[in-house]
Amino acid sequence: MSVPDSVAQPSNTLPLEKKDSVRIEGSMESITLKLIKPEGADPAFTTYMPKDFVFDPVSSGEGTGYYFFTNFAGKRNPEAYLLLFVFPENTTQADAVARVKAFVASRNSTAKPADYEAFSFTKNNVRYASGIDLRQHGNLFYYISRHYPVEMADGFGPRAHKITESWKWLN
Fold first, then answer.
1. In the chain, fewer beta carbons within 10 Å around the N or the C end?
2. Are 21 and 30 in contact (CB under 8 A)?
3. 81-109 burial: b if 16+ Cβ within 10 Å, else e
4. Nearest of 29, 32, 61 to residue 48 by alpha carbon
5. So where are the chain's domains?
6. Are 124 and 32 in contact (CB under 8 A)?
7. Cβ neighbours of residue 81 closer than 8 Å, sequence gap 6 or more
8. pLDDT tens-digit profile of 121-161?
9. How far apart are CA 45 and CA 40, in angstroms?
């Protein structure tokens, strides 16, 4: 007799994988999500991401970015990702807003400041959907950005939502 993951796991341990479903092009599809809990992340967090994404953390003096790239059919797409970017400590709200504006401007978008949550732009004759949402956790500012070719909207959006939906800050 097999024991369900929720019973087999100690109460303080999250399952390494879990099953879920997403609506893609009008139909519910079963997906497997895998646990992401990067060592040394500050602030620490956990989330689950679809198995057809890859996790790629990067860090510099400008902050730390946690990229979740699509990896459909085993092919990583650098133009289809969700990014959670954490600014360094002591970044003011004004500095964070200025950097968000610079991020949007770098995409040659015509978005107005109130439109940052969702905007689109064209690069190399490909139309992209993008968005950026500035947030705060404790005394740290961070943003969540989405970037993907508009033709991927039905598959990307629901999967990316699973990452943000299961995000938990641990400190």
1. N
2. yes
3. bbbbbbbeeebeeeebeebbeebbeebeb
4. 32
5. 33-169
6. no
7. 67, 68, 69, 70, 146, 147, 148
8. 788 899 988 888 999 999 999 999 999 999 998 889 999 99
9. 10
